[in-house]
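[STRUCTURE TOKENS]
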Amino acid sequence: MDEGFDLDFAIPHGRMPLVFCLVAFILTFFVTRTIVRYIRSHANSDAPRKWWQPRNISAGGGLHIHHVVIGVILVMISGVSMVTLSVNGGVPEFTVAATFFGIGAALVLDEFALILHLQDVYWAEDGRTSVDAVFAAVAVAGLLVLGFNPLSFFDVDIWQNDHSVAARASVIILAAFTLMLAVVVLLKGKVWTGLVGMFITPLLFIGAIRLSRPHAPWARWRYGDRPRKMHRALIRERRLRRPVVQAKLWLQHVVAGEPHFPDDSEVNSELDREIHAAPQPERTAARV
């Protein structure tokens, strides 16, 4: 063909993020639909599930975690990441877009309990989940504004300036070590320590070394046959958690529109609900 009719189908470099976003959107939609249809087709099966087979995600009390919850969390994380990593904060259009993202994020997180429970629990006790989600978002954004970076061992400057294998390997190893510490802290039931520790690494060391919370998976796996350690965890939790629960309940009441200080009965009921020993891990029967 004549060169005058050649078409250039190359994607402009500036549109590559949009292309990746579109491809990820389409692939995720089809993969999610496939998984959901598989789970539904095996809903009535009594056969034991293998580890690789998809299944519904459930939390304590039989609460079903729908994938919309994961989607909301990923959208929030990616949105905050893009706002934080903007190359030039002086671009007015980007600042306006970031402002609208903040407005939308606040509206979504204010109804996070509705998304989680799939019912209107705005004024119920379960509605406090929305307040907790807002607290977490404000804490993360505040740490980013103050200049703290998640995975503080992941030194971006070294990664960009030193292309040697040794330098990049050390950065990856330290970042993986930070993530491992964060997983241990979360398994010990210390959500806020793990969240803030991703920005202030010494907190992860403290959380990983100290005693697990009694209801956490770590306590179920490690304290099941160590009653003295479980008892220490229960006593420590009840002694240290009381002022925290009281402050949390008061702040939640104020934010949720019920400005009153919680009485002892409310604090005690919250402590009874939160503080309990984790069940012992299930023992598999020995094979004959």
Remarks:
- Residues 227-256 form the longest helix (30 residues).
- Confidence is low (pLDDT under 50) at residues 284-288.
- Residues 150-210 form one domain.
- The chain has twelve helices and two strands.
